[in-house]
Amino acid sequence: MSSGAEALPQVWIIGTGLIGASIGLALRRAGAEPVLQDQSVTAMTLARDLGAGRLGPRLGYDDDGHPEPDLVVVATPPDITPAVVADALRRWPGATVTDVASVKGVIRHDLVRLGAPLERYVGSHPMAGRERSGAIAARPDLFEGRAWVVCADEGTEPAAVERVERVARAVGSVVSRLTPDEHDAAVAAVSHVPQLAASLVAARLEPLSEHAVGLAGQGVRDVTRIAASDPGLWTQILAGNAGSVRAVLTSLRDELDGVIGALEDLEHGLDEDAPGARAVLARAIADGNAGHSRIPGKHGAAPTAYALVSVVVDDRPGELARLFADIGEAGINLEDLRLDHGLGLPFGVAEVSVVPAAAGPLEDALLARGWQLHS
Amino acid sequence: MSSGAEALPQVWIIGTGLIGASIGLALRRAGAEPVLQDQSVTAMTLARDLGAGRLGPRLGYDDDGHPEPDLVVVATPPDITPAVVADALRRWPGATVTDVASVKGVIRHDLVRLGAPLERYVGSHPMAGRERSGAIAARPDLFEGRAWVVCADEGTEPAAVERVERVARAVGSVVSRLTPDEHDAAVAAVSHVPQLAASLVAARLEPLSEHAVGLAGQGVRDVTRIAASDPGLWTQILAGNAGSVRAVLTSLRDELDGVIGALEDLEHGLDEDAPGARAVLARAIADGNAGHSRIPGKHGAAPTAYALVSVVVDDRPGELARLFADIGEAGINLEDLRLDHGLGLPFGVAEVSVVPAAAGPLEDALLARGWQLHS
Fold it and tell me: Coiled-coil annotation: which residues (chains A, B) (predicted)?
């Protein structure tokens, strides 16, 4: 259907929610014409109306008269993914089938139980999502610059892996090859356990008084932002990665027990020196420092320490525009920005991150233009 | 020393680190002339050089020839705060003494043991801080719009409370009255437990491979941002609030044990239905939803749902300037902004929050100016 240096395979997308519809939009932008399928006629026609591809037959209905797929992308909820993948592998003996579920081991386990031909199956996981769901929230740039994990093993046909990776690159992703176990262990630590921790911390706020919760600052806001996530989807994800999440969570719980023990020693021995207790607390914070430093910086590079320039910004239209115009005129590239709003006051502080060498020139430029700042 | 509708008391600041020096800068901006004291001549003269006030005698040295304070603000590390407060109460029988430690019960407990005259002591806690420490990081706007907790009881002189609150308002804070126990329970939930959770989650990243940690997205970055905090200071804070932190942490640990149990049921019964296990997981996420919704929105108002407009922004100087100029020209007030950088790609996505009624007009305005966006 498309031409170019890397011709795209004929793709069928099964499941036209946020991820499936976004893949459709991105593939059409890349010149392909994907076929859309869903259990729900409303969901598949909505995705078509939004420009994600052309309508195939409703899932489970006769598909005569439609071009046979080279690649089937199963983007259904994780619970029904194995059955849909197995069915696609049987229906189209020449096709590669992939899925996009955020757990990989349990899908493979179920496919083995279902007797599916695994040499044409390539599990994958685009590391992208939104706080909203459904085709209506889809966007063609959802995957741009994001990792797309591809899980193959020695039994997987090389041509199948190549088809999946071609599509991953076509939608703008960066391919990362991991085994299913490596994938599941990684997402347990970088995604599933952080989600549970955010939820458990947020739940502690529920019984607080208005006065108490009014003391919440930026720290707890950051820690609990993802606690607004959907319980239904997360129950499927956590249940599907139970082993890996349990392993990471148990290690966290063991350290937590040590911290609670140290706090008990300090609490009951308020006037004594509670030997060893402070070392446990200091170690917990220091280990967190070490782990935090492992997170890569922007653009996938090694962690970078940016310099911070803080600017007082009135909370009215045009003030941030004026600030950014002034930064742009100074010829300085802004690396990151955090807006910090005051409590009950009509202004905030914009914390502007720049490469360290640019901080001095930026401060000079902003002061010369009348901004109030403090380094 | 100063005039105006609310004359400021003569303030001595003992301890010229980040908080003490920032109070000095803010009070000078408000027209007062605070006296600075520290154990370290370097620390107090640096704060003086930065404009935080005028030099008093070095802490512990003779203070003849200096005006007697109306209010002493003790801004030392929490560990030595009670001894410094008790000494100030003895030295100046007409003065009010406050401290700014982020724990309140243990300070009061120690003052009782030291036999200090508590009617002139008012514990307080300005809810402000930075990721950097020392006078060099001080800024006069550090407290603007932030809560300043004031802890008084029936034994406290009303005039003493009034002096502390006048200074809190003078530096731009919003006064919040709590008892020491209420304060300590509140900060355990909104600050100390989130800090420990962030540290414990971040520590789980330490042993990961480069590939695994490369999958880190915005979620884990937000959850672990404060894991970069200082172990020495946090050991003092956690040890000083051991009882309240232990209580919140134990409740978290109990729910965590339930989650681990549910995951074990699901892990060992991979092919069975593990009765009740999914309900435990769904409840953990749903309880997090409920707690998260308690966090007040910006400006201390009730939580507000803003509409999100996402814009693709090239990663070069001037692009954000152009975006903000266009938003400003559209006459629309930006409520919040999050920059989301792609992995290995030369652009990012700016997620712009506006009041819901402004989202449509903003999208129209940005599309008309050639921006690529998706709602």
Answer: none
- Whether the per-residue pLDDT at A318 is higher than 80: the answer is no
Cβ of residue B130 closer than 8 Å to a chain A Cβ: no
Is any Cβ of chain A less than 8 angstroms from the Cβ of B294? Answer: yes
Q: Could you say which of B198, B221, B295 has the minimum Cβ distance to residue A205?
A: B295
B324 touches chain A (CB under 8 A): yes
CB B8 within 8 A of CB B96: no
Task: Look at residue A56 and give its three-state secondary structure.
Answer: coil
Q: Do A249 and B267 touch (CB under 8 A)?
A: no
Of B292, B325, B341, the CB nearest to A321: B325
Same domain, A19 and A146: yes
Stated length of chain A: 375
Retrieve residue B17's tokens.
């680190």
pLDDT tens-digit series, residues A157-204: 999 999 999 999 999 999 999 999 999 999 999 999 999 999 999 999
CB A337 within 8 A of CB A350: yes
Q: Which residue of A has its CA nearest to B228?
A: A289
| ipTM summary value | 0.76
Same domain, A159 and A58: yes
A113, A196, A233: best to mutate for the B interface, most B CBs within 10 A: A196
User: Is A325–B323 a contact, with Cβ atoms under 8 angstroms apart?
Assistant: no
Output B153 or A263, whichever has higher pLDDT.
A263
Give the residue ranges of chain B where pLDDT is below 50. 1-5, 298-304, 342-344, 375
> Which chain B residue lies closest to A346 (C-alpha atoms)?
B299
Which position has the token pair 């930065």?
B50
| Phi, psi (deg, nearest 5) at residue A134 | 90, 160
Q: What is the pLDDT of residues B104-156, one digit of tens each?
A: 999 999 999 999 999 999 999 998 876 567 888 888 988 988 889 999 988 99
Q: Which residue of B has its CA nearest to A329?
A: B318
**B112 inside 8 A of chain A by CB:** no
Same domain assignment for residues B222 and B366: no
> In this structure, which amino acid lies at residue A358?
A
How many angstroms separate the Cα of B211 from the Cα of each of A85, A174, A190, B41?
27, 12, 11, 49
Answer yes or no: is A278 within a domain: no
Q: Do B213 and A294 touch (CB under 8 A)?
A: yes
Contacts of A279 (CB under 8 A, 6+ apart): none
What confidence tens digit (pLDDT) does each residue in B269-294 have? 655 688 899 999 999 999 999 999 99
Decide if B168 contacts B150 (C-beta within 8 A).
yes
Instruction: Please check whether residue B133 is in contact with residue B228, taking contact to mean a CB–CB distance below 8 angstroms.
Output: no
Sign of the torsion formed by the C-alpha atoms of A237, A238, A239 and A245: positive
Whether residues A104 and A162 fall in one domain: yes
- Count: domains in chain A: 3
Contact assignment for A345 to B260 by CB distance below 8 Å:
no
pLDDT at A146 > cutoff 60? yes
Output Rg (C-alpha) for chain B, integer angstroms. 25
**Domain end marker among A206, A240, A263:** A263
CB contact under 8 A, A333 and B324: no
Percent of chain A predicted with pLDDT > 70:
89
Amino acid at site B191? S
In eight-state DSSP terms, residue B197 is H
A94 in contact with chain B, both atoms CB, cutoff 8 A: no
CATH code for position B81: 3.40.50.720
Its domain, for residue A327, covers 307-374
Chain A stretch 148-207, residues whose beta carbon is closer than 8 A to a beta carbon of chain B: 149, 172, 174, 176, 178, 182, 185-187, 189-191, 193-206
